[in-house]
Amino acid sequence: MKAIRRFSVRPVLPEPLRPLNRLARNLRWSWHPETRELFESVDPEGWRESGGDPVRLLGAVPLSRLADLAEDRSFLRRLTAAADDLHDYLTGPRWYQGRAAAEDRAGPTPVESVPAVSPGAPVSSVPPASSGLPTAIAYFSPEFGITAALPQYSGGLGILAGDHLKAASDLGVPLMGVGLLYRHGYFRQSLSRDGWQQEHYPVLDPDELPLTQLCEADGRPVRIPLTLPGGRPLHARVWQAQVGRVPLLLLDSDVEENGHGEREVTDRLYGGGSEHRLLQEMLLGIGGVRALRAYCRLTGHPEPEVFHTNEGHAGFQGLERIRELIADGADFDTAHEAVRAGTVFTTHTPVPAGIDRFDRELVARHFGDDAELPGIEVERILALGMETYPGGEPNLFNMAVMGLRLAQRANGVSTLHGRVSREMFAGLWPGFDPEEVPITSVTNGVHAPTWTAPEVTRLGARQFGHLPDAELWELRRTLRKRLVAEVRQRLYASWRQRGAGTAELGWIDGVLDPDVLTIGFARRVPSYKRLTLMLRDQDRLMELLLHPERPVQIVVAGKAHPADDGGKRLVQELVRFADDRRVRHRLVFLPDYGMGMAQNLYPGCDVWLNNPLRPLEACGTSGMKAALNGCLNLSVLDGWWDEWYEPDFGWAIPTADGEAIDETRRDDLEAAALYDLLEQRVAPRFYDRGPGGHPGRWIAMVRRTLTTLGPKVLAGRMVREYVERLYAPAARSHRALNLDAAAELATWKARIRAAWPDVAVDHVEAHLTPPAPGGAAELGSTLSLRVRVRLGALDPADVEVQAVAGRVDDTDHITDATHVPLKPTAGPDLEGSRRYEAPLALNRTGPFGYTIRVLPTHPLLSHPAEPGLIAMPSETASEAAGVLMR
Fold first, then answer.
1. What is the pLDDT of residues 402-423, one digit of tens each?
2. What tens digit of pLDDT does each residue of 424-477 get?
3. H helices within 528-657, ranges in order?
4. How far apart are CA 695 and CA 688, in angstroms?
5. How far apart are CA 185 and CA 329, in angstroms?
6. With contact defined as beta carbons under 8 Å apart, do 404 and 431 qualify?
7. Going by C-beta distance under 8 Å and a sequence separation of 6 or more, which residues neighbour residue 341?
8. Would the pTM of this model clear 0.85, i.e. be above it?
9. Residues contacting 731, CB < 8 A, separation 6+
């Protein structure tokens, strides 16, 4: 008989055990081994059955066991030590507080010296505003991968967001996370008998999760209101997860005040059609800001100075902040400038198809007088997201474009991805070369305490340099052996789900071998990640798997999006190959890839395989997690591997990405290169044993990976970069652009845009000093530039006239450019032109070129390209310069 309503009854712990509640409710346990060990000792069998979830564990422990523990002096001592350790972690000063104190002593960085963008902590620990560091930072993301006990993630974006919060907590950065609570999370994956992916959506009860509901002072649950077309209300409650020092607020629309359709807004992660996704993103962005305001009002937490949008899904948060300022009396342009100053936008996709884009009319219908943000003209909202640039779709609203237009600072997630992003979004800054587009990069990192095996953590990076080869090799074998045991267990469960009987599954006891070279491949299954590239030549793969002296074994996992039948076919192709009796002991596919599986998979592999289509992997962090455990990378030079690859750390798969190569030929070539590497370099090095029976050269690579590569891939390094290069400058800009300054800047921009059509470079003269025979330029000579510029209604203080000079390629494109400002010397003349001059030193040999440009300039601009305006010489002016040079 089915219950008509489900709810959870939480246990009442004996007084001596009350600290267990706090330990269970703070997700620091997910990366703190001692706390997990404490919970496991409460009930080892219950801990395994709960999947390592303290909240579920405490809800199932027999009262008699709790009574015994309340009298167990040894357990109580451990409990007190764990509770004291958590208290010290939450309240003690950390890196951020030390950095803030140092800046406070040195004095704040003047706003005018803030560099342009280049290519819940306890309130007591919040830094003073005088330090120049933000007092609070809001971090918005559609998904967060904190722990398997809170399944609110689908893949790399969510895991990255979770690692960002954890690292911020460890460093004491006053971050506040904002997301959605999906009642079904992401789907659970199983396989049919013929290997087709099956999706399951178990219902998640918030009361059974490590969450507390945000309530008003009188105990009533907080309600966050939104207005849907026609004035229909959408309400959401707010759940709070505590991620160490960082509060994470999750909005949930499954409340009784809503109609059925509105209750389903937060049903599934990345589910539904366009309107459903739009409503989710409105709730995340607009509702998220309102949830933050409620949280700060109720807890006394400082309001965020910096808002970080992790991908475009949360872009509407900027519009809500504009609405708040308009409600306080600001006009739209002033509010826009003030909001931009404190906003950071991170893009994670290297292809337009990966960005959320909505039909213009759909967006328009959800805003305005009878919908959301009635104080803002719908056309102003649409203008922020429309693709009004060459090659854009005129009727599509692009969430990444809106994110860039609402943020003064933006970044990609690896050096290569930053370059790809500048090229992809260059149309937003017409006239500027891609390398000048104001999108920088901060390479992702991973949270070591989450992803490093306890045995590796206990040794620590410093000890790996001195650990004898035999001990390091034994450590690697221990991790491999543990993976083999888990693979067999998971494979058995998978085959039972597929309908196999116990009598059919004896072969699973022989799957994998703890002494065989083990390769891992686990990630989402979009086509560009090429799950089945390894199957390109199945006969050759079989030879590698079954080699008599140097066999290879491969563990594969991954989920295809429920709507992606192409991805499901790739999964099925891989599964069918893995089902072959000849190789099923050497290659396995494990369904339902998630954090619980990953935390054993990464440490247990010897090699981590990654073979995406370059440059479509924005960063890719799975190989980073593997590297933290001494696993070597075998990857295409894409994302982070393009940036940090060295032969000491692994191998680079050659790519065949020339424009003339079709997809079939490209995949054939790259698969062959992969087989060659495995056969000729990877496997021989693994099996090349020295006198002690250990592969000395392999162990040397493991050691270098742990000691040299490991520190680079840390999320702590990533978060420190965000603080120093993006958050701190954004906080200073936010403080500088108060409403008066923002109004002044908005007025200046409006004046500049109105006058810009009249700005022109009329004439360019260039004279060599000293003169050379025949007019030939020689190294060490100087090019004296004289330029006539029409400014129309603008003043010289409104612009900067520059010479852009450097080496030129075969198309006369200037590379490695130097920018030399020209000084006004006279004007205006009778025609309204002004003369600018500057010497240009010829300090390099070879093909050389220059041009002149005029840019708007203002002390509060974050980047010369920010206004998107530029004036270049006309053809007549260019021809005159050429004549004089000859």
1. 999 999 999 999 999 999 999 9
2. 999 999 989 999 999 999 999 999 999 999 999 988 766 888 889 999 999 999
3. 538-545, 565-578, 595-604, 622-627, 639-644
4. 5
5. 40
6. no
7. 408, 730, 733, 734, 736, 737, 742, 862
8. yes
9. 132, 133, 134, 135, 305, 306, 342
